[in-house]
Amino acid sequence: MMVPELQGELLDAARAADTSVRHVYDPFVGCGTTLAEAMIRGLDFAGKDINPLAVLACRVKAGPYFPAAIRRKTELLLDRMATDSRRTIDVSFPGREKWFDDSVAVGLSRIRRAVCGESARWARRFFWVAMVESVRLTSNSRTSTFKLHMRPQEELTGRRCCPQAVFCETLLRNIRHMEGQAHYLRDRGLLRRGHYTGAVDIQLGDSSQNLEGSPKQLDLLITSPPYGDNQTTVPYGQYSFLPLQWVDLGDIDAHADAALIANTHALDSHSLGGSLRGASDAATTLAEMSPAFRRMAVDLASASPNATKRLSAFCRDLHACLDPIVGQLKPGALMLWTVGSRRIANRQVPLERILIDMLEARGATHVASVPRHIPNKRMAVRNSIADTMRSETIVVLRNGGH
Asked: Are 30 and 135 in contact (CB under 8 A)?
């Protein structure tokens, strides 16, 4: 959940400590702020995420950068959209009528058909990003929270939305951003014929599995895993559910699984801590590995059995990711983890200490921990779910084997 400026600062600090850093890895890549900061420094990057929406955002950020071509393609797309008078609704999913008025769904369907009429996948991906924002702003869900939450009835009454207008405004803004980014990268010799000169590999999948086809000696890890189970902290799956109903999953990734967006909770259930099944069985192993986990589990047991399960489920899933993650790094590689200080049953969870214990058990060395307050301007702090997390800690470790 880090802001770009922080990740840039972390990259610079890590490179100052190790001038050989070339290949950066983020196994919970999210919207790709680490990717963007790595690219403007000319670094190679590998990232992974289970959320197709995150992968879409990252693959668009990775390029190609063809601003003139995208402007030409935009004109053609807008022509297709303007001449489409059909009133059919092209998607069907649970709750469609709840989350979208028919008039909005008709407008979004026209946008969708216009995007699908583009022949180049890189351009379709760029257009899908604009459509994602259009879906978010024209749905009946509030925009002040990651959680799906109906707007109040008094707001919905008489509300008029034009998805096409929102899409056009968003698309033109994104084109201007592409032009600025292309100019920045080109001036620094980081673009060749519109393509980034470094290597970028964005993969859709579970971070408990190894990266496919990437080098196993990555130089630096910078990441911010979810701060707890998505169902009770920030439900990224819910946030992604509505946009992904309108996007062609095949354009994001050939292996994108529609089952992950079958309902509002499916993606969150597959994310860290998303399932409580078997969580109690994992507690013994986790307690042996992490004294901090053991103390927290004992404390939570007096609160409620469910609280202990929630802690165990999240830590079990994080633990399952660590061997593949550490195995991708070269000996002695720095790891910079930004982890949140969240609460369960009104008790603060020492996630940073639990993470340190689990990584030290794998031969890593703890270098430093730097606490940081989450800026109030960020959306998550404004909603009640995120009252459970107000600060974060940057945990610095060095991989074993050096």
From this structure: no
The tens digit of pLDDT for each residue in 9-20 reads: 999 999 999 999
Domain ranges of the chain: 4-59+199-229+271-398, 67-185
**In this structure, which CATH number among 3.40.50.150, 3.90.320.10, 3.30.2130.30, 3.40.449.10 belongs to the domain 4-59+199-229+271-398?**
3.40.50.150
AA letter at 315: C
Helix (H) or strand (E) holding 370: strand 365-373
Q: How many angstroms separate the Cα of 107 from the Cα of each of 9, 96, 157?
A: 42, 14, 19
Q: What share of the chain is helix, strand, coil (3-state, %, to 5)?
A: 50, 15, 35
Which residue in the block uniquely carries the two structure tokens 């354009």?
Answer: 251
Half-sphere exposure of 210 (CA within 13 A, CB side): 11
Element (H or E) spanning 53, and its range?
helix 52-61
Q: What is the pLDDT of residues 319-336, one digit of tens each?
A: 999 999 999 999 999 999
Residue found under tokens 């994001």:
252
Residue 183: which pLDDT band, with cuts at 50, 70 and 90? very high
Work out the burial of residue 280: count CB atoms within 10 Å of its CB; fewer than 13 is exposed, 13-18 middle, 19 or more buried: middle
